């Protein structure tokens, strides 16, 4: 009798009763026979004859080691999942402790926690696939799952999960601008006698004071575009450690307006270096991608924005109209025409009213629904272009002009005043 494998002269070690007559095999080719033969032929009758007990013991040891490795893989995977859940719980606890109006936002919190559950269920499904797979396939699945786990961690630590759970109010106690034609950021502390510090960030090119900026969660600033040479650039500056993250951009613009709302930054209008545009874009953090929106009704630069209830109130420099952009409908409604020609405007809001402040012009007040508007007084500011990011802090709005003059608008007193030259 010879081994079933052609031209094999090895010593026979196994007899497999899966066929009639039985299949004889050496220890080298027995695993190949079991893998290649029909699986159903081996189910009722296991491999029963092993003339060499030492070889049988070696095979059992090999199978035992494979099972041990699989159990160890499952143990580590479960441990990793437990650690991730623990991190989520700790970060959720920190987020909950920071809520100012926790009771009022219960429904929002529950809705956003479901996002965590969806991601956790996705990971659980992936782990079940790994445990049910053959060892080689399980390793490949496990390698592929690392990308999912990394993205999951990024959104906890970055602007994803926490920003959705926390009711972001676009507030900051720091006012940020670029020094013109440099790579320096000027950071003014609104809580500490308006003291300012400067620091360099790592960029490939010098930035303009007109770089579009808006506050985003995580004590960070989203920067977009450049001027006078329009540039396809966008990046995030972390104000905690001055680290930047570059984001790919397909278009080249400067002098745009931007606002953060619900895990996205919305960018409106701008300047190409030759003419003004009515372009509108949305950058979605969770998918790291840009989306084209319906264009503004008019060409506009220096667009100022505020957002709430899936709507964005906005106005720009090249016109006198105030618009409302509906995020769900991806459409615009003209709310008011202040009929004042071309003005630079600052838009802000408290819990009761919205305000449009004209640079060197008047202050307009709108009701909570942004429908009724009236003139309430003079802005008493200079009439030049805006720079930096407009920020809200303790019911006051801070903004600056190209002369680096910082102004404060008190929404209770409804008055503007110059704070300092930065």
TrEMBL record:
UniProt-listed Pfam families: Kelch_1
InterPro entries: Kelch-typ_b-propeller, Kelch_1
Name this polypeptide is given: Uncharacterized protein
